[in-house]
Amino acid sequence: MFDLVSFIPRAVMQGIPLLFGSTGEILTEKSGNLNLGIPGVMYVGGICGVIGAFFYEQAVPAAEMNAVLAIGVPLLCSLLGSLLMGLVYSVLTISLRANQNVTGLALTTFGVGVGNFFGGSLIKLTGSEVPSIALSATSAYFSKSLPFAGGLGWFGQVFLSYGFLAYLAVLIAIAASYVIKRTRVGLHLRAVGESPATADAAGISVTKYKYLATCIGSMIAGLGGLYYVMDYACGVWSNNAFGDRGWLAIALVIFTIWRPNVSILASILFGGFYILYLYIPSGLDLSVKELYKMIPYVVTLVVLIIVSMRKKREDQPPASLGLPYFREER
Amino acid sequence: MNKTMKFHISKRASLPWYKAWGIRAAAILAALLTCAVVTMLLTGENPLNIFTTLFYGAFGTARRSWVTIQELAILLGISLAVTPAFKMRFWNIGAEGQVLIGGLATTACMICLADKLPNAGVILCMILASIAAGAVWGFLPAFFKARWNTNETLFTLMMNYIATQLAAYYIIVWEVPKGAGKIGIINQSSEIGWLPRLGNQYLLSILIVALLTGVMYIYLNYSKHGYEIAVVGESQRTASYAGIKVERVIIRTMVLSGAVCGLMGLLLVGGINHTLTTTVVDGRGFTAVMVSWLAKFNPIAMIFTSLLLVFLSRGASEISSAFGLNHSFSDILTGIILFFIIGSEFFITYKISVRRSAGKEA
User: Fold this and answer.
1) What is the predicted ipTM?
2) Where are the domains of chain B?
3) pLDDT of B79-105, one tens digit each?
4) Interacting residues of A23 by C-beta distance below 8 A, sequence separation 6+
5) Domains contained in chain A, CATH given
6) Which DSSP category does B1 fall into?
7) DSSP-assigned letters across all residues of B163-176
8) pTM as predicted
9) Mutation target vs B (from A44, A116, A240, A301; most B CBs, 10 A cutoff)
10) What do you get for the CA distance between the two ends of chain B, in Å?
11) Could you tell me if A293 lies within 8 Å of chain B, comparing CB atoms?
């Protein structure tokens, strides 16, 4: 029997990291930067939050923890970490005009390395006596849902059972969508991504927009890592547990045709695909489940192909995606 | 614009090769120093010790050196495979999947044909199947790129995961023993389908890749195909004016790219590991992109860039085990080195001059 009420919350919890990642990447790509470092950024966002929470939990006994600090410290650390990653990418690709694909892949190598390294060595490096990184006290603050959610039956479970970061993800996606589509800033941003030379001639600072979009995009994506470890994984960091969600977020960007508001439902759909194999009765044959895990990628591929075949102008990637801009080279 | 720039950036006409390599060497040196400082902060060891350990990890014993060279060969092979496509400005980041699918095809032959064909027949099938599988994985994105200009970076990226899941599926289908979730060493007693050993177990793949390096160098620089690839890479319009069939070049080159990747999958599974896991390629498909780009798509220079990366990763993993740190330490060091080299390219391509009379020219 397919249990929808238990399936949807799990799909949503899988989808939220993807939503953060794809919103961040959409913002970045709208400025013409194809940041393939997002998987690395999300790892760094997660681990920096863990490091912040780890030190806070070490410094203060669980009973005296302050809710504002318990959430604020990891949140700030996470944002700072992913901002630094965004800056590395921006300096290399925008100021130094390096190849975006190569820089992005290097950033992913570096970021995943940082995540796994500190995740695996944090305890040894700080010389503390805990057996593993389990930040359950901090996690409790992050995953706290509305107090009356439990009393509302299926409605509460489907809509109200999540930590605050989940709602933040939806809000950010709606805000990003609005800014890109309806404001002057968004118009300028799209101009930079479509044709930087034209934007430059119109007096828009291409460098400024690219820097801002990439760094803010990175910070949003980094929150996805934070949500994953603090809320979904209950504060337990295990190496490589985040897996390939970063790449899935990049896939989502195409799947939603560069629209953050579409991404809200699409990430939940992808989150559902991600765990669908748990719900499909396949008997004892475990192998079929591996094939179900292929679904999100195949679906993305199909969307990519259809979009390129239809050639509708508003569905295309930003025209200068992946290309560096150098005024003197026009 | 009323804001005056203090620096003026312009493209260099050309830089003598020794200056360009001087800049790169300086970048690598600076990167190594940064790595040493980072390692020092994390381990508290003195830098000399760190570098000794780094070197020991890669070349400390004869066995270590052989493994390092074998690793070098595999990475170089995959880098060679992606290079023709890159020269054509076709951003194939799907080498990971193309190698894996080649490995999967190899495994299929080793398992399914073991008691049906003699050893030589099995190996022949493995070679054909792996190359064909890689070629198919290369053909698909190229076909859609040529026909409908589908974004190849994203296409090949998705193909990686389709290959991974396909491999994961067959690993469970063929798992030994049932429920183990892995295949284990294939044909351990009969050694059917194991590629022959030349001297020692490392030499075969090294020789094949050495041969491949030479062939690829000639193919890219002295053949008609290589010329067409270069023209398409410079400008697709120029290419079609010159009568080059751009679509055909794109598809042909990517099939070649995929086929060579498939061949590397054969070496990994049939020659080295004799088993298949979903992580058998271990990110080399992505590292290969960087190797190829850092070497400016020159097969000979790629020997050095892949050596640098393999040396670092082997050395850094020795550091992490010597100082009880997590194995991912090597990824951090690799990342730092890459950032420096990527950044240094700017100073090779562009010239920065300080404006003395700021304000007048602007």
Assistant:
1) 0.85
2) 77-281
3) 999 999 988 888 888 899 999 999 999
4) A169, A172, A173, A176, A217, A220, A221, A260, A263
5) 4-319 (1.10.3470)
6) -
7) HHHHHHHHHHHT-S
8) 0.87
9) A301
10) 8
11) yes
